[in-house]
């Protein structure tokens, strides 16, 4: 997710700069991060609201698993009852426009034109959340709304307002471990913690300009209602999540992208694989540590290697057995056989990875009982107050 956010900022920065000069507003990487968090929702002057007593226009041909306007209204009402009044409400004109364009796309009228570069299920999911009087948009959609004239200028938010939300406490746990005198033994639990601390530190550095602990949003007033054509492109530019959307907000696991899809897919894959290799390789620091038994030391070594290499091996397996790769190697075989081989290998890799992680988790606790006396000797660092 961190890599996706960084790429989103990199892709959209130049395009936002054009409107920044034209609109005379401050705009930085922090503003783009803030937009990707849903910090700049667009509110429409409700010209045709749907009251509780009115019938909601249906959207026909919605795929199974996609939330209808009725479902979204119920979900938002439950959230409103729990956290307080929410200004979101269904907008009849938006629903009618959504129904019209969804019918066209579901019947294949826009496929030949190349208008959509998003899978239909993800597109229609982004489309249905635009049925209200408030759109919670990400940076790509915000920029598109400005380009289409739905908003007449970018929001004015001083950099100082965003800096107030930036984290100032750096993760120092990994550095703190480095201060520990080398003459004293280190426990497996400390290495276990170090692996998470290193990954957290890298994520923190990548997202150094992202506002932290954001609790408020800056609402932008729309100058016009969207046309049916506008909705096609707004949904196409929306974030891609994992799993169904039960409300109008941007999920934490969303992958942001602009309409032109400039971010290479392999970059995201390589970032995830690098993180897993680094995470697993850190456990190898305890390669020659003291363990209760020789068998447990062997299992620790195997589990560390599996943690580091399981997912990269799975990625390579998937790439090699991919149909396009088989054509390059001129491999001829029955598709069903290759599918069975790939599924069996993937299942084996996942099971081995889970077992390896379970063993490491249990072993770090069990090994505490067998630590040498030197591990419990206090040092000068114990006299310095810790942060957090």
UniProtKB/TrEMBL annotation:
Keywords: Membrane, Transmembrane, Transmembrane helix
Transmembrane intervals: 191-208, 265-286, 298-316, 337-360
Source organism, top-level taxon: Eukaryota
PANTHER family for this protein: TRANSCRIPTION FACTOR DOMAIN-CONTAINING PROTEIN
Protein name stated in the entry: Uncharacterized protein
């Amino acid at each position: 997710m961190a890599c996706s956010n960084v790429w989103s900022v990199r892709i959209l920065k130049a395009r936002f700069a054009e409107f920044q000069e034209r609109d005379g507003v401050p705009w930085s990487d922090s503003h783009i991060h803030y937009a990707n968090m849903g910090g700049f929702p667009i509110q429409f002057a409700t010209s045709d609201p749907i009251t509780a007593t009115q019938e909601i226009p249906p959207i026909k041909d919605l795929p199974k698993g996609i939330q209808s306007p009725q479902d979204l209204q119920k979900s938002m009402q439950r959230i409103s009852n729990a956290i307080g009044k929410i200004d979101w409400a269904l907008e009849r004109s938006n629903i009618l426009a959504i129904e019209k364009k969804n019918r066209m796309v579901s019947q294949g009228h826009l496929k030949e034109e190349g208008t959509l570069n998003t899978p239909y299920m993800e597109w229609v999911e982004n489309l249905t959340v635009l049925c209200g009087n408030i759109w919670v948009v990400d940076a790509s959609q915000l920029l598109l709304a400005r380009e289409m004239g739905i908003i007449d200028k970018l929001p004015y938010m001083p950099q100082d307002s965003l800096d107030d939300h930036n984290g100032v406490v750096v993760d120092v746990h990994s550095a703190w471990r480095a201060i520990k005198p080398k003459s004293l033994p280190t426990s497996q639990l400390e290495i276990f913690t170090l692996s998470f601390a290193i990954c957290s530190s890298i994520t923190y550095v990548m997202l150094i300009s992202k506002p932290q602990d954001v609790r408020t949003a800056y609402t932008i007033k729309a100058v016009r209602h969207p046309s049916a054509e506008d909705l096609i492109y707004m949904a196409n530019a929306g974030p891609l999540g994992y799993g169904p959307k039960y409300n109008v907000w941007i999920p934490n696991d969303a992958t942001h992208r602009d309409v032109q899809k400039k971010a290479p897919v392999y970059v995201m894959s390589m970032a995830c694989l690098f993180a897993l290799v680094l995470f697993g390789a850190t456990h190898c620091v305890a390669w020659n540590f003291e363990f209760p038994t020789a068998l447990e030391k062997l299992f620790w070594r195997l589990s560390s290697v599996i943690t580091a290499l399981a997912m990269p091996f799975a990625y390579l397996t998937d790439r090699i057995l991919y149909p396009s790769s088989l054509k390059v190697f001129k491999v001829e075989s029955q598709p069903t056989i290759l599918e069975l081989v790939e599924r069996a290998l993937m299942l084996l890799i996942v099971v081995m990875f889970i077992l390896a992680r379970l063993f490491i988790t249990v072993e770090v606790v069990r090994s505490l009982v067998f630590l040498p006396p030197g591990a419990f000797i206090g040092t000068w660092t114990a006299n310095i107050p810790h942060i957090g």
